[in-house]
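Researcher: Re-running this chain for the archive, since the previous output was lost when a drive failed. Same request as before.
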Amino acid sequence: MKILFIAPSFPYPLTHGGKIRMFNIIKYLSRNHKVTLACLSEDTIADYGPLSQYCEEIKVVTRKPQWLRERKLFILGSDPYNAIRYSSGSFRNLLMELLKSRRFDVVQIEFPMMWQYARLVKDIPIVLDMHNIEYDLIRQMKEASSNVLKKLLYGLEEKRLKQIEEDAWKECSLCVAVSDRERDMISAHIRKDGRVITISNGVDLERFAYVPKKTSERRILFIGSMDYIPTIDSTDYLLEEIFPIILSKIEGVKLDIVGRSLWRIRDKLSAGEVALHENVPDIIPFLKKADVLIDPLRIGAGTRLKILEAMAAGTPVVTTSKGCEGIKVKNGEHLLIADSSLDFADATVKLLTDRELSDSLTGNARQLVEEKYSWEKVVLTLERAIRALG
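Model: Regenerated structure tokens:
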């Protein structure tokens, strides 16, 4: 089949979860299908990297952010900000030309904010890969905020996104959710001849090879970028409530924070035990050194790739119920789940000091990702659903 793959960003290098998911879907679909990638990018792409091997054709339209104009359009208009950010006349013209000059069997649209381009597609099945239910994420951000103006703006965005997403679910041929919870939220809105399926996130099992821990340096790893509100909330929760308890219970602990825009939290660091590592090219060395990966997530949608990657690599995990949402794990078997700051700190200390428990969790976790979460198996399920559209 010939697939037109429409994305909001160029899916390489693999700097965040959305890019990782898109890259691996393209990689494994390309084994049996011809994929044309059409995407937006804030920067000029000089090197397509391995995507050159996986795509029959790649078309990139550069769109620089126009923050003032976009905010004005949001306040004065009726579109969600998430859609305005990815609106481009040049990209629309590119898609019209591609659809006119080439024959595609399926169009796959990544993220609901790109659904605005679905109107250009005529008489071709459309797959919508949600990644997150965006309005649900915005709702959580609204409820967590104490700022009256932010609550108002979040509420406006939530309402507009909800309308767009529910319309998209009714109109697409196949809707892809990343968790059963989100699949169930979507299922009430799909059209009669439409389908919604769960295609979870996955992990590259060869790249994230299992490395059992032999010694303990009492080193904790937190991964997250400070340009994303749910991560900012997690970081504040970690530094203000959880990490001080850990330090009071055990000596010699080190915390590595890895991600983007870490300058935003430098003034929040009072302990010499915290090290910041910004824009690292590869997370694997940090997973190998870490005795535990923590993700104290309180706001979120979709599923967390970093948890699957840690599970594959043999790094034990402590997270919240929200953090492991959508992953078929059991507390005490594959990882530890804790939803209060005291419980979270206690669980972290337990993994730092109990090698037997740590080894048991990581062994079970690796077995689970091998059985259910390899990208090859994940995309095979998607491929079968796409073939059924023809």
